[in-house]
């Protein structure tokens, strides 16, 4: 039902141990491919994406035709007056693209962000229910 | 536990850095969870960790002497019976991580904040533990 676009598959995954060197934004932040869960149920599809450091106002979601793009701008957590002496993870931005099935209703997509986790509800369009086409005899 | 030596207190993090990158440190096959960053300030330290999706009430942070423990549980969301997984990359369950700090921590001055899935803990060195400057009296 949803497959990933090949061009973003190269973006490094946020595992905490490898810094992103391949993807970079104009503001110089590394771009990570956030971890995602996708569930399908009878009313549609639920997408959950992990983007620690991203606030509700820093998320951009786009659904154009069949392409769902999720972007998140990470906030710097550098405490004031401190310098980093040891690092296991890098901070940066997030981006991931999915190709979703056509029968989802783009106008009714609901998004919520809590504790760095984005939840997207993509309901199935009513019109998308199978339509029978009658063949008339000539 | 060694906190500082008479000649090494100027940089209390030296020991920590040495322990973390020194030879003989075998890299763990499974990275410890959560991943942490450590920050140094004047007579204080800050530890940040990425814990997306963890509820603040499911976090258990404790401090004893120079050891900080971050424990908790990432609860899996409720999934309906009819739901099928198309992609499953996130992990859930209990976790615990111990961080050894280069100084004894003032228990009453530990501040923890949790914002956008990022935990930040600020730890201070107790006043009586700070190196004291000794004035030299003129003869």
Can you put this structure into words, describing what you see?
The complex is a heterodimer of chains A (138) and B (139). Chain A has strands at 3-4, 30-32, 36-41, 44-50, 59-64, 67-72, 83-87, 92-99, 110-114, 117-123. In chain A, a hairpin with a 2-residue loop joins strand 5 (59-64) and strand 6 (67-72). Helix content of chain A is 0%, strand content 40%. Chain A is mostly beta strands. Chain A is built from no helices and ten strands. Residues 6-10 and 15-21 of chain A have low confidence and may be disordered. With 139 residues, chain B is mainly beta. In chain B, strands 1-2-8-7 form a four-stranded antiparallel beta sheet, with no helix packed on it. Mean pLDDT of chain B is 82; it is low at 1-9. Chain B contains one helix and eight strands, in the order αββββββββ. The chains are: A mainly beta (138), B mainly beta (139). The interface between A and B is large, with 39 and 45 residues.
């Amino acid at each position: 039902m949803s497959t990933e676009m090949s061009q973003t598959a190269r973006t490094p995954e946020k595992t905490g141990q490898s810094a992103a060197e391949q993807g970079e934004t104009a503001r110089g932040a590394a771009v990570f491919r956030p971890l995602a869960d996708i569930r399908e149920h009878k009313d549609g599809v639920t997408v959950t994406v992990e983007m620690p450091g991203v606030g509700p106002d820093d998320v951009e979601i786009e659904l154009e035709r069949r392409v769902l793009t999720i972007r998140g701008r990470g906030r710097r957590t550098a405490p004031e007056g401190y310098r980093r002496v040891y690092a296991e993870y890098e901070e940066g931005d997030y981006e991931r693209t999915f190709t979703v099935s056509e029968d989802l209703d783009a106008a009714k997509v609901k998004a919520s962000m809590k504790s760095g986790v984005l939840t997207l509800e993509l309901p199935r369009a009513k019109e998308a229910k199978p339509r029978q086409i009658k063949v008339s005899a000539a | 536990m060694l906190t500082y030596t008479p000649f090494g207190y100027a940089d209390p993090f030296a020991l920590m850095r040495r322990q973390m990158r020194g030879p003989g440190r075998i890299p763990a096959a499974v990275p410890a969870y959560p991943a942490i960053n450590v920050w140094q300030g004047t007579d204080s330290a800050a530890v940040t960790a990425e814990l997306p999706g963890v509820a603040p009430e499911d976090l258990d942070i404790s401090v004893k002497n120079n050891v900080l423990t971050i424990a908790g549980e990432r609860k899996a969301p409720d999934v309906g019976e009819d739901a099928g997984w198309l992609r499953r990359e996130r992990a859930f369950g209990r976790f615990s991580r111990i961080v050894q700090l280069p100084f004894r921590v003032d228990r009453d001055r530990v501040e923890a904040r949790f914002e956008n899935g990022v935990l930040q803990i600020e730890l201070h060195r107790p006043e009586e533990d700070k190196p004291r400057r000794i004035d030299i009296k003129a003869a």
